[in-house]
Amino acid sequence: MRGLHSAMARETKRIAINTGGGDAPGLNAVIGAVVRAALHRGWEVLGIRDGYAGLLDTSKIVQLGRREVRGIAHLGGTILGTSSSGNPFEFPISAARGATEVSDRSDEVVQNFKRLGLDALIAIGGDGSMRIAHDLARKGVPIVGIPKTIDNDLNGTVTTFGFDTAVTVATEAVDRLHSTAEAHRRVFTVEVMGRYAGWIALHAGIAGGADAILIPEIPFDLECVCRKISDREAHGRHFSIVVVAEGARPIGGEMVTKGPAEAGREVTLGGIAEQLTHQIHAETGKETRSVVLGHLQRGGRPTARDRLIAQRFGAAAIRVVARGESSVMVALDPPEIRTVPLEEATSRMKSVPLDGDTIATAREIGICMGDE
Questions:
Q1: Residue 262: predicted pLDDT
Q2: What angle, rounded to 10 degrees, do the helices at 357-364 and 199-208 form?
Q3: How far apart, in whole angstroms, are the C-alpha atoms of residue 310 and residue 26?
Q4: Among the options 50, 151, 164, 211, which is catalytic?
């Protein structure tokens, strides 16, 4: 009787969950944790496909039960799909004369949320998705955010899931390049993700034993990089590895892009490693090659650390909904998971601190950061 009474006493809720922005290792782990934790409380869970677009086309909404999330924690990608171009506040509607028109369809999202009888939305995403979540929360939608970005640039949380896997992939790539670089006496430039923050480049560069690390927070001087390579050459080290974040730029220069931004999306970065390859060869005479890791950093199995963080975030988000909180994002504040207001989470980007221990470590072990 006690168990029956407890079950009846539970407040039944209907919640929805979506994944927005770029995919990241650990997304399926967090989806599974949200669903299992909600079902444990007797709640109903709906999955929204393709980011926020699924709240505009409700045919994209699916029921999520234990069967749908069984055995998915180790899988990359997301069973719900995701999108970087479904911002309901700037939704693409047509393209003409090379420009895409956008429309504010956020009121439709709010109406569909209410029509579906939802009590809360669990929004999983990076800075762009959290900004959309914040804007929807201000229109009355109860939202709890879960931070997801391999760039690790979301404010308010020590780390995000996906970051550890991305660093592990990048480190393994740098490890593998050492042998071929040394065998051929070449310089390799390795381009990793990191639009405005250089967390992946910094961590993978140090872990992988790079000779130079270039990040967006420190505009680089090409002469400093070439001087490091020439100094190694003079001391019998006839190869070098340069790890560069995609958003790194030279002093007084701009980020390297692949074309204009599309409506509702940021400009696509890429090409800095190739540019450096030509410049380093011209300055040093060394045979130089570039490697772009790109989306390899997002794919495949998440590390154990990312799986654990993702599941902690997922279960914590359900506890937050149960407490009646909204307009917040769960965040890691070791050793605990806490909440931060969405306004705080989106107030600024979390950059690599230039006076921090990790930058100091890189400099003290002889890694060139491009500025000295």
A1: 56
A2: 40
A3: 6
A4: 151
Across the beta sheet with 336-341, what order do the strands follow? 61-63, 44-48, 14-19, 120-125, 143-147, 328-333, 336-341
50 tagged catalytic: no
pLDDT of residue 8: 39
Chain centre distance of CA 330: 15
Secondary structure of the chain in the HEC alphabet?
CHHHHHHHHCCCCEEEEEECCCCCCCHHHHHHHHHHHHHHCCCEEEEECCHHHHHCCHHHEEECCHHHHCCCCCCCCCCCCCCCCCCHHHEEEEEECCEEEEECCHHHHHHHHHHCCCCEEEEEECHHHHHHHHHHHCCCCCEEEEEECCCCCECCCCCCECHHHHHHHHHHHHHHHHHHHHHHCCEEEEEECCCCCCHHHHHHHHHHCCCEEECCCCCECHHHHHHHHHHHHHCCCCCEEEEEECCCCECCCCCCECCCCCCCCCCCECCHHHHHHHHHHHHHCCCEEEEECHHHHCCCCCCHHHHHHHHHHHHHHHHHHHCCCCCEEEEEECCEEEEEEHHHHCCCECCCCCCCHHHHHHHHCCCECCCC
Parts of the chain with a pLDDT under 70: 1-10, 94-99, 259-266
**Measured in whole angstroms, how far is the alpha carbon of residue 308 from the centre of its chain?**
16
| CB-based contact 33:39 (threshold 8 Å) | no
| Residue-wise burial string across 49-71, b where 16 or more C-beta atoms lie within 10 A, e elsewhere | bbbbbbbbeeebbeebeeebbee
> Around 325, how many Cα atoms within 13 Å sit in the side-chain half-sphere?
16
pLDDT in tens, 72-81: 999 999 999 8
Residue type, 45: V
CA 131, CA 136: separation in Å to the nearest integer?
A: 9
How many Å apart are CA 19 and CA 172, to the nearest integer?
A: 28
Domains of the chain: 2-161+302-334 (3.40.50.450), 166-299+353-364 (3.40.50.460)
Q: Is 305 exposed, middle or buried (0-12, 13-18, 19+ CB in 10 A)?
A: middle
